[in-house]
Amino acid sequence: MKIDYAFLKNFLQAKESIHNLADLMTSIGFESEVIPKNTIEFDVTPNRGDFLSLKGIAREYSAISGKSIKLNLPKSSQPFQRNKSVISFIDKSACTHYCLGVVKNVSNIKELSADKRRLLTQAEIPLIHPLVDLANYVMLEIGTPLHIFDLDKIAMPISVGYPKKQQKVKVIGGEAKHFQTSTLAIMDNDRIVAMAGIIGEESSAVSKNTINIAIESAFFKPEKIINQSRLYGLTTDAGFRFERGVDPALQEFALERYLKLLSEIASYNSVECYREGFSKAKIRAIKINIGDFEKFSDIKLPISQAINILKDLGFEVSKLSPALLEVKVPSFRNDISIKEDIYEELLRITGYNNVPIIEEHIHRPLISDGSRLDNRIKQFMVIKGFNEVQNMPFVNPQNPDKALSKNSVVIVNPLREEEAVLRQSLLPQLIANFIKNFRRGFQLQNIFEIGSRYHKTGNKYVQDKILAGVVSFPADADDNMFLVKGLMEDLLSLASGSKPIFKPIGPHNEFSEIGLDVFNHKKQVGSFGEIKTSLIKEKQKIHLFGFEIAIDLLDPTPKKMKLRKPSKFPFSIKDLNVIVGSEVSYEDLRTTIMNAKIKDLTDISFVDRFLDKKIGNDKVSYTIRMKFQSTAISLTDKEIQNNIKQIFSVLQGTFNASLRQ
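RE: above sequence
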């Protein structure tokens, strides 16, 4: 919210400079910045809609400065009547009360005073028409948005509710919006004339030819207005305030204040005020003990000072005993519900910097091995370029996989029928996260989640902690599988101190045949692979890989490591392409080669797995990469070739292997 300093200084009768006033507001929780054109910009948290006006600022200024401010805001007192031919119906689940002032034969309209026009322009509220500008001024003055209709362009009576069908509505500014049935509307006898609390319909707006007007002052529940601006791509000052909550007891005063100011800039013949659904706000009373506040804050506060602070902030205070107060919460403070909220108000005004500093005794935190491992994995994933996400564990029970559905953990009293079971895999939600972000323009994403999956085994319920993630690659990338495999190797080396073993993937709901199962100490701990193209519509644009690792199955115990002196002699990398039976896995080949104890062979790694009818329907080809290095001499090509022949001989004897040409 941006406010002209000169107008604010005069309104508050303040003596502080613009910078001192901004610092003063910042000190009590409203971060304020001096910006060009002698203006202060206030950053207001979503729960403090009561601050979004000159009157709201005045309350806070009075409390922090200790100066009693008596605001002179005269009104034109009017009788309010009920008339179904003017306001026929309001949906009280969304609008507790609705007021309408009907003013006829408005003439001799003058512009607002220069200081009021400057206040509006500095607040980035455009000057439209004096009748509308006056409504916006009242909003800035006391915090209640008003809307002005051209009375001759609407067909009485007015009603407040939800339209029965979708409609195309041209809003002020000329943009057409497809009005949803879930959006609260102001309707006349023929059509929608306003999106409640946000913006009016264009044809009912005030113009230079306007003679008769209807002034709307209403209270719309924040939960019925919130997100509607974003839904329609509309940002208005009224919507900003209604989303945060306006004072539900101020609608009549706002209308009467407008009429008083209207008499200063225009002439009119008659005015009639109507209301529907008015209900007095419930008074919330909270008892506080000043001794409890002192324990809460470590600040000694005289009870008389506490009473003055709360009264300046708009609370009603009664002293029940020397230390006990009853505090009645004003209607505009919807953020106050418990005694700790009152303590925070006292502490905020007293000054957080007055809280004494207590020397802390540092204790070693009690962190479980599981928590340490989680943190290490999270740090690792972030270093690798991943972003962490968190999803709720509730999912749709309509699972096409009957085996999964049979083992589902069903929630007895779900919040929604669409979220009635606990998830058995983290991947579907991560894939949905990816697709949602992709459609918003984020094409290459690496995201992960550490969370629980649930399933039923017999009569027992099982909960496992899982690390899952998805990785996207451009469509023209061709080394995706190896990059993900390398990630899994690094991850398990970090988490368990040992290299994982990989085997061809078994049947999986999310992965295609391009994948591997992951083993740690002969125990399967997870899988990774390419996400099935049937699960993503963006399959022509990206390659998407995923992984799931059961953290609980990893052994995080540090392994004893032997250090050995590195060789100063050069190493040599050689690839071997062998064809074996399809039942043979890469790990079978690797284990056999390592057990053969080939001289100067220091490492073996997987490069490729190839299937083709040309090599046989029951055959598979593996490309194995071997590293040779001696600690004593530089190996010759002949020595390396002899080692390779020895390796092939072992594979030929064990698996009836042949060379792929």
